[in-house]
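Holo prediction. Input below; ligand is iron/sulfur cluster.
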Amino acid sequence: MSSEAVDISSLSFEGLNAFITSLGEKPFRAKQLYRWLHQRGAVSFDEMTDLSKDFRAKLKTVARIVTLEKDLEQRSIDGTIKYRFKTHDGKMIESVYMPSPERKTLCVSTQVGCAMGCRFCATATLGLMRHLTPAEIVAQVHAVNREVRANEKIEKTLRPLTNLVFMGMGEPLHNFENLKVALGTLEHEDGPNFSSRHITVSTVGLVPMIERFGAETDVKLAISLNASNDEVRDVIMPVNKKWKIADLMDACRKFPLKQGRRITFEYVLMNGVNDTDDDAHRLAKLVQDVPAKVNLIQYNENPGLGFHTTVDNRAERFRDILDRAGVAAFIRANRGRDISAACGQLANTEKEPTFVPLGAKRSPTADP
Ligand code: SF4
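Structure of the complex:
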C-alpha cells in the first residue's frame, strides 16, 4: 500500500463511486465495497470474498481501511461499557455503550479532546488535539457493534446498536464537515441504515453551525444549556461569551424541526451553581416557545474541577417547577458513573487532566 493510499472509509457513497470509477471499475463494485465497509464493518480487504482477487489486490495498493484498535474496556455495574480506542496515530478516544431493555445506545466522540473549554467537563482539560475523520467517527459504531455481537451472542449479520448520541469527546458542530459525511454513512441504506429519528447530535451552541446543521442534516438536535442566565453560562461555558443565550434560543426557534420532534435541552445540575428555584423558573421561560424537552442530569464530579452534584431532592424540585410551567422535564439516570463514563467525564488517560481552580480562566485551544 502506498503512503498516498486513499482513506476509503471516509468517503461518502458518491465519493466511493467516483473513486472506484476512476480506477476503471464498474459502479456496482463501489456498492459492493461500500456494503462491506459500512454494512458489515469489514476491517480488511481479504474479508471481501465476493470481490475478485485482482480487484482486492488493486485496492490494497491504492486504498486503506481506517480501523480503531480497542485499547481498554471498562464495565460499569449498571451494564454501561466504556471503550477506549486508539487511532492510527496513537490518539485515544472514548465511546460509551449504554444498553437498556428498550434500546442499545452508543455515545460517540467526534474529536480528540475538545476546544470548547466547558469548566465542568473532564474532556475540556485535554484541549483540542485534532478532529476525527468521518472514518474514525463511523469506526466507533462498527467496533462497538462487533463487541456487542460477540458479548451478547448476536448473529453476525445484525446491527445490535439501535441509537446513537453524539455526546462523547468533542463538540460535533466544530467538526461539522466530517460529522456530516459520517451521518450520511450511518444513515445510508447500504451502510448501517440508522433512522434519523434514532440519532441525536448535541452542541454547546455554535449558533451559525446550528443553522447549517438544520439545513444539511436530518437528525435530532440537543443543546447542552446548563445555565439559565448569561452571567453563569459565561463562566461555566466560554462559548457563551461569543453567542449569548438569547442568540442560541433564537437559533433554536428557527431550527427546522420535523413533525413530532422536539429539541432536547440538557441541563447538568451543579450544586449552588445553576440549581436554584430561580434557575428553574428562568429555564422554563427560556424554552416556553420552543418545542422542547429538558433532560436534567445530576453532575458527575471530576476531581479537581471544583463543581459538585446537586442533591436528589433539589433535582426533583427543579423538575417539578418545570413541570408546573408546562415544560416536559426528566431526571436522567446517570449511566456509568463508577467508570467515569458518564456525561462530562470522558478524558482518556493519554494526558492527565490539568487542574484549573474555579475562577481561573481556561482558554479554549481554538476559536469556536
Ligand atoms: S462538555 Fe462537550 S463541548 Fe464542553 S468541553 Fe466537554 S466535550 Fe467539549
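The chain has two domains: 6-64, 69-339. That is the main takeaway for now.
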